[in-house]
Amino acid sequence: MFVDIDSLLRPVYGHAKQGASYGHSKIAGKQILRKGLSPLATIVSTPGCAPVIAGMRLRAGKAASGKGAARMIAQAVTTARMAGATGPIMVFGDSAYGNSRVVKTCLDHGTEFSVVLIKNTLVQRAIDSIPDTAWEPVKYPERSEIQTPGRGSPTPR
Known about the structure:
Layout: E1 2-7, E2 10-11, E3 21-27, E4 30-37, E5 40-46, E6 49-57, H1 69-82, E7 90-93, H2 100-108, E8 112-115, H3 121-128
Parallel strand pairs: 1-7, 7-8
Antiparallel strand pairs: 1-5, 2-4, 3-4, 5-6
């Protein structure tokens, strides 16, 4: 089973929108400041079934993408297990979720995970410390074998 986590900024209009605030959004490759709400969603799916929203939280537009992510992942994994998932669970997230809280949550819940880390000097030092002989090629499954959220399947973004 797969758990995909993502946030987005949805614009709102008018002065009386409760919780709306200005946050950064990227449109046509350019960062802009936009008034809106920032929902955080977790979606569960399997290769053989349609994606299902496991959790959704509505946050102010200025909320950081990763705010509350570890707890949302924990709840999505619990939901997946309660729904009958008995095999491995893979958590996917972009760079907003490549942090120690999310990784700890994945490890605590026994899931596999694929998150993007922001490259900084600490990460670069760790990469540089890996000997050339330790690198192994990634073996990607054929598209017909598996479809992962956001990578060929119809998971909403």
